[in-house]
Amino acid sequence: YLKKRFAPGMSPTDAADVVLASRANNPGVADLEIRAVIMQTVAGYQGFKAVYDFRLDIQGRKMPYRALSCGFMRDGWFYGISYTAAKRYYFQKDAEAFESVLRSFRLVEK
Fold first, then answer.
1. How confident is the model at residue 109, as a pLDDT?
2. What is the pTM of this model?
3. If you ran DSSP here, which 8-state letter would residue 75 be given?
4. pLDDT tens for residues 22-56?
5. How many helices (H) and strands (E) does the chain have?
6. Phi, psi values for residue 13, rounded to 5°
7. 50 with 18: CB under 8 angstroms?
8. Given this model, what pLDDT does residue 98 score?
9. Alpha-carbon dihedral 26, 32, 37, 43, rounded to 10 degrees
10. Distance from the Cα of residue 22 to its chain's centroid
11. For residue 107, what is the DSSP state?
């Protein structure tokens, strides 16, 4: 659902805009609400962390979700990692596990 594109040298803020615009353009997503976009080091690179809420239509019910999307640009490539879960209970329950995975996220040279 990308209408914007990633580009070499793009700032973390611009990369976050691409990710969030893609989510907003997804026809299955409703009521997108961006809670925060902060600059954060990801895998040792200057990147972003975006927190947002949205609803998915599941069998006629609009179910609330929360997501964390983190990413950065390197050598013209976008690298990202995200976590999405039902907002009511599961998001908070496993958020620390995601943060632990995020802290261990690294690029490996070939």
1. 81
2. 0.88
3. T
4. 999 998 899 999 999 999 999 999 999 999 999 99
5. 2, 4
6. -65, -45
7. no
8. 95
9. -40
10. 10
11. -
